[in-house]
Amino acid sequence: xxxxxxxxxxxxxxxxxxxxxxxxxxxxxxxxxxxxxxxxxxxxxxxxxxxxxxxxxxxxxxxxxxxxxxxxxxxxxxxxxxxxxxxxxxxxxxxxxxxxxxxxxxxxxxxxxxxxxxxxxxxxxxxxxxxxxxxxxxxxxxxxxxxxxxxxxxxxxxxxxxxxxxxxxxxxxxxxxxxxxxxxxxxxxxxxxxxxxxxxxxxxxxxxxxxxxxxxxxxxxxxxxxxxxxxxxxxxxxxxxxxxxxxxxxxxxxxxxxxxxxxxxxxxxxxxxxxxxxxxxxxxxxxxxxxxxxxxxxxxxxxxxxxxxxxxxxxxxxxxxxxxxxxxxxxxxxxxxxxxxxxxxxxxxxxxxxxxxxxxxxxxxxxxxxxxxxxxxxxxxxxxxxxxxxxxxxxxxxxxxxxxxxxxxxxxxxxxxxxxxxxxxxxxxxxxxxxxxxxxxxxxxxxxxxxxxxxxxxxxxxxxxxxxxxxxxxxxxxxxxxxxxxxxxxxxxxxxxxxxxxxxxxxxxxxxxxxxxxxxxxxxxxx
Length: 527
Description:
Layout lengths: L14 H17 L8 H7 L4 H4 L1 H24 L1 H20 L4 H29 L5 H29 L4 H4 L1 H15 L4 H13 L5 H20 L9 H22 L9 H4 L1 H31 L4 H6 L2 H16 L5 H18 L9 H26 L8 H39 L7 H17 L5 H41 L15
C-alpha cells in the first residue's frame, strides 16, 4: 500500500501517536549529547582520572555517533526502518545501563562508543519514520513535535545533568535512560507498523543482493571520525602545534580526498554527494550546520560562563537556560501551525531573531543577574524553532523516495557536526581572546597610572582595616589581578557570542536562496 495524501505510509495509525513515540526516543538520545558535559568533573573525581582524560567521554560518543550516521540510510533500507530503530533503542538502553555501572574510565569509554553507535542510528531513522507517518501537507506539524525533542533536549541536558550530579551521582546521567528506553522499545514494537511500501523495497534489495559500499563506508568513517577528534580535542591539544591533531587532520583530509571521487563513480554510493550539490538540499545542509553550531555552542558556553565567572552551581547554571527551553516548546507548536508560510521566510526571520539574541549578550557585565541570561536564552528560544522546523521540511522537497533515508542521515550529520564546529569555534575564540584582552588590559596597570594607584590605595586602606597583620600590599594587588581576570573572561565570552551572532546572520541569505516549496496535496516529496 503506497502512501497517499491523507494517511502517509502507515495507513490508519494515528500519526501523532507515532510522532510522540519517536520524539520520546529521540529526546533520550539527543539529551546524551549534553547531559554528560556538566558531569565531567564528577566523573573525573569518581573514577580518579584527570579532567582531560574524562573529556574523552564526550569525544568517544560524538565520534561513534558520526561514524554510524553515514551508514544508517543503507542499514535502514536493508533491514527495515522499524527493525533498525528497535535495535538502536535496545542497544542504546543497554549501553546506558552499562555506562551507569562502569567501574573505570576504560570501561566507560567502551560503553560510550556503544551508546554513540546506537544513538547515531536512531535520529535519522526517527526523522524518516516521522516524515512517512504524515502526509506532505501536514508534515510541518509533525516535525514540530520532533523538533521539540531535538532542540529542547540539549537545553534540558545541562540542567538535568547538573541536578543529578549535584544531588545523586554522575551514574544517574546514564541510568535515567534505562526506563525511558525500555518503555519506548515496547511501545514502538507494539504500535508502529512496518511500512508496506518500504517492506516491498527491502525485499527487492535482498533479491538483488546486499550491495554495501564497504570501501566508501571505511573512508567516510575515517574522515568523519578523525575530523570529530580534531574538532573536539583541538583546543585542548593547542590545535596544529600538536602532532596528535595534525595526524588526525591529515587522516581526515586524505580520507575525504579519496572518498569524494570514489562515491561519485559508484552506481549505488553509500552517500549520494550529488544531493549536496543541489541548491535546495545543499543550502539546507549548510543552514543545519549553522543551526547546530548555534544551538550546541550556546548550550555549552552559557552554563560554563555562569559556573566559572558567576559562581553558579551546575544546577542553577542549567536552570538559567531552562526558560528558553519552555519557550522553544511553545514556539514549536506555533511554527507547526503556521507551516503554510514558505520555509525560506520563516528561516530568515528565525535567523534574524537568533542574531539579535546573540548581540544582546554584548551588554553582559560582571553584575549581570540570573534573568539577564535567562532572557537571552528566551530570545534564542523564539528564533531557533523558526529555523529548525522549516529547514527540516524544505530539505525533503524534491527528494526521490529512495533517497529519503540518506537525506535524513545527512541532515542529522549536519546538525551533529555543526554542534562540534560551534563548540570548537567557541572554545578557541574564548582562549585566544582571553590572551588578547589580558595583554591589552595589563598595559593600563602600573604605578604611572593614577587610576590604578588610587584603586590600590583604597584597597590597601580597606584591607588594613580588616586585619592587623598580613601583606596588605600583596593582598590588594592580588585582588586587582582577580578583578582583571574576571573582566578579561567576560570580554572574551562577549567575543564568542558576537562570532555566534555572525554565524546566525549568515543563515539569512542562505535561507532566502531556497526555492518555493510546493504545498500541493499531490506533491509527495518522496513519501
